[in-house]
Design brief:
Elements: H1 19-42, H2 47-77, H3 89-119, E1 126-128, E2 132-134, H4 138-141, H5 145-184
Antiparallel strand pairs: 1-2
Helix pairs in contact: 1-2, 2-3, 3-5
């Protein structure tokens, strides 16, 4: 008579994201929030203060781009913890769609910003964190002035749309996380915050 296989013990911490995913999440979140503030303040500055703010904005943006690509690579090679069983199909779709839009924002914003710098008639070099030279996008930088102006308009519109849309999405994301923590009580927020429980209450 065949012997039934022994039950597989649950993987420790399976209900949480990995330490790498958590670290990347909070690093990127902090940098994006800081850069939204810097970006909105740049227009009110002038002279050296404005130049320094632009350099800081570019430094944070490229850092977000690098970290976001690393996070995307990690996400593609490491399975995320499952969503709570009680979530409806609509909630599951919204969760997956939100994550996809966040990746679009995290990668699209710095890319469009990089494009803007590359076609700028000011041709100001980028020095990340005052130490690391960062090149222009050569194919854009070498365009004639007419096409450059077209790229500038398109990249500006996309960059601003992603900034305002991203700010709204962040607000909704925070509200959803608080709803899961205090109303649904399904442990979703604890999957990304180590000191919170990731178990339903």
């Amino acid at each position: 008579m065949p012997v039934a296989p022994a039950p597989v013990a649950p993987t420790p911490g399976r209900s949480r994201y990995s330490a790498v995913a958590i670290l990347l999440h909070w690093l990127i979140a902090g940098f994006i929030l800081a850069n939204l503030v810097v970006g909105w303040r740049m227009g009110s500055l002038s002279g050296l203060a404005q130049f320094d703010a632009f350099q800081l904005h570019k430094s944070i943006g490229i850092t977000v781009l690098v970290l976001s690509l690393a996070r995307l690579g990690w996400r593609l090679t490491h399975r995320s913890p499952p969503l709570p069983a009680g979530m409806s199909g609509v909630e599951r779709f919204a969760a997956h769609a939100t994550h996809g839009i966040f990746y679009l924002m995290m990668i699209g914003m710095p890319l469009t910003g990089w494009a803007l710098v590359s076609v700028s008639p000011l041709n100001i070099p980028t020095l990340l964190w005052h130490h690391i030279p960062w090149p222009h996008i050569a194919v854009l930088h070498d365009l004639p002035s007419g096409p450059k102006a077209g790229v500038d308009r398109a990249a500006t519109n996309i960059h601003l749309a992603l900034a305002f849309g991203g700010a709204a999405l962040i607000a909704l994301h925070v509200l959803a996380a608080l709803k899961h923590q205090f109303l649904t009580r399904d442990g979703v927020l604890g999957r990304m915050i180590p000191f919170l429980s990731a178990d339903p209450r």
